[in-house]
Input
Amino acid sequence: MRRYFRLYLHFLRFSFSKAMEFRIDFTFRIVMDLIYYIVNILFFKVIYLHTPMLAGWSEEQLMVFVASYLLVDAINMTFISSNMWWLPQHINRGALDYYLIRPVSPLFFLSLREFSANSFLNLLIAAGFFSYTLFTYSHPFSFLELLLLLTLLLNGVALYYCIQMLMIIPVFWTHSSRGFIDLFWAMGIAMERPDRIYQGWLRKVFTVILPFSLVASFPARLFLEKFDWETFLHLASVSLIFWMLMLFFWKLGLRNYSSASS
Amino acid sequence: MKWWRSVFSMELRKILAYRSDFWVTFLGQTFIQLLIARALWKSVFEAQNTSSMEGFTLDMMTLYYLIVPIGTRMLTGENIGFLSREIYEGTFTRYLIYPLSVFQYKTITYLTNSLFYGFQLMILYVLYHVCYLGDSLGNLPDLVLGVSLFLVASMTYLMMAIVIELLALWADNIWSLMVMLRFFTTFFGGGFIPLDFFPAWATNLLQWTPFPYLVSLPVRTTMGMTSVSDITNGLIILLSWCLIFMMCVKFIWIKGQKKYTGVGI
Output
């Protein structure tokens, strides 16, 4: 564990020095993420001009949900996303060998090597917005409820990572340079909507098969509404299953890896 | 004119190279985004207990969000980095020996992508009317007009994109600027929410930008929600913006080509 921690510190140092070399890009990316946050907030602000409630939530409650998924997104962008961008290309070009011969877990190395320094600043902004929505939230809540929300959001980050990986892993068989990562980004919008808007089979899709609703909407619901064991157990079990599925398919993919580029 | 046909068919082969990825992504992106948008608006309509909002029924919303993702893909044509990547990798030099300029080449590849998505849009529009509404093929003249407007819009967007892509001659990475352009175009063009839902002051302000004409106008035309004067005015404005950005491209290219070393970074 200590070895991995020390290794991660090296990744951090390397990523910050790399980001500082491209300063204009560093600045542009911060602005880009800020615009993404603003667009997301404006999206719901415009909708609330036409309705006082959405999926059973008032505007104030929905902003807690928005802040929650922005926080999950910021954590993902900072720690994981850059690595996910390169992973299909490593597989496609046969460049995975470099990672497989290292004396560390290839999954750890490939998933966390690139720390996005510019997104780190945006993570601070997202965390600021998250804190602001909680401070201005008119209903009282306990420290334990807050702790539960934060824990479930961290679980959301892990679940989001698993879904992402499951969209990339098919590259081991399809040999394309992108996998289904574009599809993942397109479907990612499902995470940015309250789960109650989904009904019937679509609800099953986004809560079980592609559980984007479990990333931020379920945690926000457990925080904003009365704690419900059924929702909590659903969240915990699906997360566990997805983690195991991801590890299974990753190992299967590695066994299928031929080193030859496509 | 033989060269453009060669570039066109080569680009088409490239688009269809990874067919399984292509169809999964296309169907997934289009239908999943449509389903998510429909679910959201259904929830809003139910909360308001109404069948129509700002001139949109739920079925119209469904058609709107069916057109938007493919229309936006028509607009954005090629992937981000279609010029800048070549500048960074130093492969821009190869256009020196091509029998056509880099801009002619890129315009053809870009339009090939746009036309291809336009074809998909036509199929989905017809399928929507036949399978979902269970009536005729829909209003085909409106469809052709809408797709044509999307093509003009994609030329304007291409010029905007080239302006930013050429900044790669100075900046070390322009990817984020292109993403910002996409955000602005989609949101302020009405790709996330129809512009009719925006406050009046915002729509008045947006009329002075190219965004509503890039997304909202072609979508509404395809849906038969625009008058002849709306289309004529929109077309004039789109072409004017296209001309303005073409001049910007020319200016930046004159300044920037001296910066190009052919080495890459």
The interface with chain B takes residues 21-22, 24-25, 28-29, 31-32, 35-36, 39, 42-43, 46-47, 49-55, 174, 176, 178-180, 182-183, 186-187, 189-190, 193, 196-199, 202 of chain A (CB under 8 Å).
